[in-house]
Amino acid sequence: MPCCKHPTWVPVYRWHVSHMPDDAMSTSISAAANVPLFLYPFLNTTSKTRPFEYLRLTSLGVIGALVKIDDTEVINFLLSTEIIPLCLKTMEMGSELSKTVATFIVQKILIDQVGLNYVCHTAERFFAVQKCLVSLVESLQAAPSVRLLKHIIRCFLRLTDNARAREALRTHTPLLLLDPDFTACLKDDGQTRQWLAQLLANVGLKHPDPIFAEITEPTQPLPLPPPEQ
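RESULT FIELD:
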């Protein structure tokens, strides 16, 4: 089937974006940001066959290279498209690697203030992301992945920077993140342990394992953006 043959320019473009110098990168943002539009059909497929999974993963790699730029212009453009629903779809049905890259993309979008405001602007958007993250956590019981868990925890932590999201997460944070057996995989990952400890402190919870005791005070949530006119 012709559509199953991956376009050879995608890996080349992904490499090109990730290796561009900073000055060239800044002048190419607008052109580069439009490329994902051509990749979205590959992310929208529900097929789990190897050819389509390769297309999905390669397409995510291009978008992942773009969000690594840490440029609000790129985030603004992606948010004007269907990137969040498509990433959530991949997080639900992709391979472990595709789920990891899709979660990383959501993480990078949330790290940008524009992205955090966008996701937390409505309850519908917030809970779509929250429910997908919870589902991912639950899936890791059967198939543990420290790499994926790290991105999930960072997403949850960033959401607590929004006051309304923090309040919601007080009752909607997955309890598995408090399970010493589940989080034992983080014993050698100090950064992620700190993120989890801070997340739990922000939502009024405390991990029973003493290795998470280094952070007990919540951070201050960011000021809420003004309502849209």
